[in-house]
Amino acid sequence: MKVLENVSLKPYTTFGIEAKSRYFIDIQTVEELVEALAQSGGQEILILGGGSNMLLTKDFPGLAIRISIPGITIVREEGDDVWVKAGAGVVWHQLVLQTLGMDLCGLENLSLIPGFVGASPMQNIGAYGVEIKDVMDELEAVHRTTGERKIFRNEDCRFGYRESIFKHELKGQYVIVSVTFRLSRVPKLHIAYGDIQKTLQEMGVAEITPKAVSDAVIHIRQSKLPDPAVLGNAGSFFKNPEIPRAQYDDLKAVHSDLPGYPAGEGRVKVPAGWLIERAGWKGYRDGAVGVHDRQALVIVNFGGATGAQVRDLSAKVQASVFEKYGINLQPEVNFI
């Protein structure tokens, strides 16, 4: 392992914010990770994957460890079910494409989500009616202090909407090193969510396959979301809020076109992008920062923005939506 000093983290995050880390290590194996943690000397540690779920608001004074553990392998087969294990450093979309190439179903709705495999359970990433909790079997993680390797089963992760135990009770305690997914050779397609069916029709798809669903999702995402390589962003900046049914009914009486989706336990999920757009933010720009003109849920860095500028704009959006609708938007993005 080579420890670097005063390394720019700009290339390692999708927001493209300039910030430096005092020390930096790129990790290729679990053994290297255990060694790096043991030798960290108690300094503050920042774990980096694809950098698609974080906003750097200042220089980092400690050790940044980038997890680049590779590998995609079939570890078990039982009937039509196939268990695929991926290293935490595998690019998420690469995993989706490779499993589709194996004729495996389960990840197609999650196509083109930015980031690495290791972050997927932490955020319980999801799109178009599918979440990690629906397909993950188990993960392996390393304890930051003891170096102990531990297996977490799906039920151990306490998944919720963009939530897991790693964002709450175990926050900052473990580093995920691999994730195993239970996929299937028999298609169980989810095409009712969003514009998937409409897009498949527009694409003239005669036979709906997992690959066709993936292609449709990619088309939708590319038409709505900016490419981080071109325009810095972290995808959806805010979670879709879940509010009590009574509050939703009161808002619906005033805003008749307010969309809502049952979220269980007497709650309704409201699209954050809709709230932000109706509050007047879609296409807004203030110098180097702004709100995307095709998807109001995305805050963008037009070039040269600071993390503080992005954070301040997000706070203004939150305040505006709360003033208009009485709903608190919660960031999906982690502020560093």
Automatic annotation (TrEMBL):
Cited InterPro entries: FAD-bd_PCMH (IPR016166), FAD-bd_PCMH-like_sf (IPR036318), FAD-bd_PCMH_sub1 (IPR016167), FAD-bd_PCMH_sub2 (IPR016169), MurB (IPR003170), MurB_C (IPR011601), MurB_C_sf (IPR036635), Oxid_FAD_bind_N (IPR006094)
Organism: Siphonobacter aquaeclarae
Cofactor: FAD
GO BP of this protein: cell division; cell wall organization; peptidoglycan biosynthetic process; regulation of cell shape
Physiological role: Cell wall formation.
Domain FAD-binding PCMH-type: 16-186
Keywords: Cell cycle, Cell division, Cell shape, Cell wall biogenesis/degradation, Cytoplasm, FAD, Flavoprotein, NADP, Oxidoreductase, Peptidoglycan synthesis
Location of the active site: R162, S236, E332
GO molecular function, one term: FAD binding
Family: Belongs to the MurB family.
GO CC annotation terms, alphabetical: cytosol
Subcellular location per the Swiss-Prot or TrEMBL entry: Cytoplasm
Reactions catalysed: UDP-N-acetyl-alpha-D-muramate + NADP(+) = UDP-N-acetyl-3-O-(1-carboxyvinyl)-alpha-D-glucosamine + NADPH + H(+)
NCBIfam families according to UniProt: murB (TIGR00179), PRK00046.1 (NF000755), PRK13903.1 (NF010478)
Name of the gene: murB
Enzyme Commission identifier(s): 1.3.1.98
Superkingdom: Bacteria
Keyword Cell division listed: yes
Source taxonomy: Bacteria, Pseudomonadati, Bacteroidota, Cytophagia, Cytophagales
Major localisation: cytoplasm
Protein name listed in UniProt: UDP-N-acetylenolpyruvoylglucosamine reductase
